[in-house]
Amino acid sequence: MANILQPTEENLRELRKFLLFGGLVGVPTETVYGLAANAFDPEACAKIFEVKQRPANDPLICHVSGADALEDICHANPLALRLAKRFWPGPLTFVLPKKSKIPNIVTAGLDSVAVRCSAHPDFHRLVEQCDFPIAAPSANPFAYISPTTAQHVQAGLGSKITFILDGGSCSFGVESTILDLRDETNPRILRYGALPAEDIEVELGRSIEKPTFITADESVQHLAPGALPKHYSPRTPLELRGGISNAELASLKNDQAALLLARPEGSFPGNVHWLSENGKLSEIASNLYAKLREIDESGYATIFAEEAPELGLGLAINDRLRRASFR
């Protein structure tokens, strides 16, 4: 199994060397844990696809130390620099025209690259020590529930990698928002995420295009990671409900589990689970993947999950639940 390391300066220096020479490392971010490689090293990045069993048409996100590093790997426009100044470090990924030094395997052969600057203090320190960008998709077997603790990474990939950097539980708990900025006159959200679309629209002073239906054809090229319809999925079949009544909770069979947004009133059996005490969206998002993993490991035949309101973080939560329910 992998060695789980604490974020000491000595360990960060060793991990930098390990990445430089082609190793893979499980790393914490504020969204989910990532599987990191030197983004300038195509052989190291190929290992990411191999270890995760990730399809080759699913591009990786590159992590940089800040806006000043954008020009090293992509062609940044004024809008990207403006939004980086406002939202970085943080859970916002840009898609921009790539430079040739980024290997094609990182971008799935596209002429664009996804790039962000993480706000997680330990990972940010590691990125700052590297003179190369770090490619890091979620550190889990492809399409399974994303990891939000070092222990989740150990359970999913620990037998295939050498090191995991333990940065505690991820604060946001869902992946970054992805924004297509290739044409700065027409920014588009490609994936809902931890930064609400409304925050970007407030900064821009106008509405922007939102995601549309994603084809189930896995051969189709996608600009953004996490775009396939089946993703973030427990092994247990999940059914999404607009709401789950107390009567439905009381009638659950022993092999069925309910996943609610907030703690229900009264007392219910152990197969009724909830993501927050009062329905706060940030708490729901933060707990979503960990609770899904807990339920998935409990031997139920079916999970009934409650949808979130379609606003703010609720859009990202519902996106993940819909992909988790896809069969």
Task: Please provide a written account of the structure.
The chain has 327 residues and is an alpha/beta fold. It is built from 11 helices and 14 strands. Strands 1-8-2-3-7-4-6-5-9-10 form a 10-stranded mixed β-sheet, with helices on both faces. Helix 10 runs parallel beside helix 11.
Q: Count every beta strand, where a strand is a DSSP E run of 2 or more residues.
A: 14
Q: Fill in the CATH topology of the largest domain.
A: DHBP synthase
Number of domains: 2
Characterize the quaternary organization of these chains. Answer: single chain
Major sheet summary line: 10 strands, mixed
Rg, Cα atoms, Å: 19 Å
Q: Averaged pLDDT, please?
A: 95
Q: Distance between the terminal alpha carbons, to the nearest Å?
A: 31 Å
For the record, the CATH architecture of the largest domain stands as: Alpha-Beta Complex
Q: How much helical structure, as a percent, in the residues? A: 25-40%
Architecture blueprint of SSEs:
Layout: E1 3-5, H1 9-20, E2 25-27, E3 34-38, H2 42-52, E4 61-63, H3 70-73, H4 78-87, E5 92-97, H5 104-107, E6 112-116, H6 121-129, E7 134-135, H7 150-157, E8 163-165, E9 177-180, E10 188-191, H8 197-204, E11 238-241, H9 246-250, E12 256-260, E13 272-274, H10 281-296, E14 302-306, H11 313-325
Parallel strand pairs: 1-8, 2-8, 4-6, 5-9, 11-14, 12-13, 12-14
Antiparallel strand pairs: 2-3, 3-7, 4-7, 5-6, 9-10
Overview in brief:
This protein is an alpha/beta fold. It has helices at 9-20, 42-52, 70-73, 78-87, 104-107, 121-129, 150-157, 197-204, 246-250, 281-296, 313-325; strands spanning 3-5, 25-27, 34-38, 61-63, 92-97, 112-116, 134-135, 163-165, 177-180, 188-191, 238-241, 256-260, 272-274, 302-306. Helix 1 (9-20) crosses helix 6 and helix 10 packs parallel to helix 11.
